[in-house]
Amino acid sequence: KPLYATENRLRNEIKRVGVDPYAEYLINKGLSFNIRIKNLRPCQANIIKQEALAVGIDAAVARDVVSCSRDISDVCLFAHIHGLTKFVEKLKKQPFGLKDLALEIEDMLFANKIRELKLRDVIMPLNKPKLMGILNTTPDSFSDGGLYTNREAILGRLIEFKEKGVDIVDIGGESTRPYSKRVSAEKEWSRIAFAVEKALELGLVVSVDTYKSEVAAEALKLGVHMINDISGMGFDKKMAEVVARYNSAICLMHIKGVPETMQDNPSYEDVVEEIYFHLEDLINKAISAGISKESIIVDPGFGFGKKLEHNLNLLKYFWEFSGLKVPLLVGISRKGFVGKLLGNQDKYRVLGSKLLEMLTLLQGASIIRAHDIDESKALIELTNHLICDD
Fold first, then answer.
1. Is the separation of the CB atoms in 97 and 78 below 8 Å?
2. Pick the residue with more confidence: 2 or 52?
3. Among 89, 265, 278, 328, which is least packed, fewest CB within 10 Å?
4. Full-model pTM
5. pLDDT tens-digit profile of 239-286?
């Protein structure tokens, strides 16, 4: 019968067969890995093709690369990990910068699995998905605007988070829904200050949803653990310095444009590829600014400057973002595109959100950002049964 090709599944089957321990190397022959390498010179592409064939894997190059009649070509590698290991070792000996490429592929293949997230003084294990509960203290957020604008409601929501075991609370004071209007840093901070103080008093791990360095600084002074920046440090150039100064965690999200206009016909040539490399660039900038890689999270930004088809492609190929080697956060909860997928039946937005969140969890998401706590806790518990190592 066909076997589902995961490392643990294949290891169990090898043991059931009763082979000698040395034969466990066969596991890597059963694990496939496909890589696309962009913008290679013909000399590089031809060497890659040659070395791939020599170790028994396949490389697809443009048809006129062999004659060197084009300047640039991409290469697609189709391989099992056993063959790629041999390929990398051979490529390390080649000229034209291919040793650096070999090291990059090696790092991609054999980097340790992300096991924990550093949030200032909190080390959060990532052996199971985590739940980030949303608390918007705004009058105009798309889903819960106006529900938590007084102290009694805010405190009640925070106590609910505490009692139900929410892993991180994400507090926001400015709506960033499509066509929303910006507010000043002073107004934003006045909306969230009480919530931040009480959340910390309750012993919750606290994230503040802001793209303003002034708001981030005020929150971090109080002991907030993380900044969730929808702009990926793009709207306020001081954000990276502030986060680094407090040794804080940060979530870097992709957005195309600004909230006021981001849904005015956004376009991409390849949405997954463009966002992947954008997030990779943000990670490198954050590290260069002094932010620890162990404290960086990324979010592809569902609904932020994306049409329906863009969101669908991100969902279908979400697993590719695991190549960034940092925890992945998903914010799908109750968003408009979920309703569109269900024929604009808003009554199914919660159900639709949970199903799509599960799809991302099965593809490697580490954190789900959600409004509906009971449903999300159940979702994570169910998913744990599917992604556990047994």
1. no
2. 52
3. 265
4. 0.87
5. 999 999 999 999 999 999 998 888 899 999 999 999 999 999 999 999
Rg (CA), the chain: 23
- Catalytic residue flag (residue 212): no
Residue of 191, 256, 335, 349 with catalytic role: 335
Query: In whole angstroms, what is the distance from residue 170 CA to residue 168 CA?
Result: 6
pLDDT higher at 65 or 146: 65
Please indicate whether residue 1 is annotated as part of the active site.
no
Could you tell me which residues are beta bridge partners of residue 168?
132
Tell me the C-alpha distance between 226 and 169, whole Å. 10
Bridge partners of 229?
Answer: 252
Q: How many CB atoms lie within 10 A of CB 248?
A: 24
The Cα 174–Cα 211 span in angstroms is 10
Strands (E), 206-295: 206-209, 226-229, 249-253
* Nearest to 383, CA basis, from 370, 366, 373, 371: 366
Q: Write out the E strands in 178-229.
A: 206-209, 226-229
Catalytic residue among 177, 212, 306, 369: 369
Between helices 213-222 and 185-201, what is the axis angle to 10°? Answer: 20
